[in-house]
Design goal:
Structural class: mainly alpha
Strand content: under 5%
Order of helices and strands: HHHHHHHHHH
Number of helices: 10
Helix content: 55-70%
Largest sheet: none
Number of strands: 0
Shape: rod-shaped
């Protein structure tokens, strides 16, 4: 079997102005390794060693070419010929990528990466759809307590902000859900995670709403609109007010609880 000469390496083609670049950059080293594996299929140890020497010679010839200075394909091909030649020298027989543990591990890793990317894209689509839903509800004036919050709503809010479709109503709705511990915020872990995923103004708004709810004073949602304005203007002061209300209300709640127990005896 004749040994095919290593390919002639050319400078990667640069896209013309105005032509969109590919989403994922081409992994030149990976391309080189795949090319070597295809050409090595069926080779013996002697043939692989000869191909390795030719690849080394080609790399030596190309060492002063400026257009190949940053091309990772050439060195990757030499390294792959070295690995395959050493593998065949150890195992004997002819090369078969299906029996090459390194190749199979790489294929499995590529499959896992592809599945993870597919899942990521699906999650992005779901979040975009949820963002559209929240924007529509807010625009129609129907985003209220009857709409339960879901996992990922914080990210859906970020999508609205990023694409310039921000609705203050969404922040107020999230703050109310966090204050009520309703929807997915009924899970303590989700409520805790909101500290890292919601803006400080929304968290301050939620804290003040929760503190005001402890007063047991009846109030329609629109009567507490001032809480959102305070949170937007000064989140730190709003949070301080919520903490102060909690501290003031705690003894009252304890006294009422004690009175209730006495009356039940």
């Amino acid at each position: 079997m004749s040994t095919p000469a290593p390919r002639s390496r050319r400078r990667p083609r640069v896209p013309a102005p105005g032509v969109a670049a590919p989403r994922q950059p081409v992994d030149r080293a990976k391309v080189g390794r795949s090319s070597v594996r295809r050409r090595a299929t069926g080779m013996t140890a002697t043939e692989a060693a000869a191909a390795l020497e030719e690849a080394r010679l080609q790399q030596h010839i190309d060492r002063d070419r400026e257009d190949l200075a940053d091309d990772e394909r050439g060195p990757a091909e030499v390294a792959e010929w070295e690995r395959i030649a050493q593998l065949l020298a150890t195992t004997g027989g002819t090369y078969d990528s299906k029996a090459d543990a390194v190749v199979q591990d790489e294929l499995a890793a590529d499959q896992r990466a592809a599945e993870a990317e597919q899942q990521r894209l699906q999650e992005q689509q779901q979040l975009a759809a949820r963002a559209d839903e929240l924007a529509a509800l807010a625009g129609a004036g129907r985003l209220d307590r009857t709409v339960g919050s879901r996992p990922g709503d914080e990210a859906a809010r970020d999508i609205l902000v990023h694409r310039g479709d921000y609705h203050p109503v969404v922040d107020g709705w999230l703050a109310q859900a966090l204050a009520d511990r309703s929807g997915h915020y009924a899970d303590p872990a989700a409520a805790t995670a909101a500290d890292g995923s919601l803006p400080v103004a929304v968290r301050a708004h939620a804290a003040l709403l929760a503190a005001l709810a402890r007063t047991s004073a009846p109030a329609a949602d629109d009567e507490l609109e001032f809480a959102a304005r305070l949170a937007q203007a000064d989140p730190a002061a709003t949070k301080a007010l919520a903490v102060w209300l909690d501290r003031v209300l705690a003894p009252i709640e304890l006294a009422e609880a004690g009175a209730g127990e006495d009356g039940a005896r």
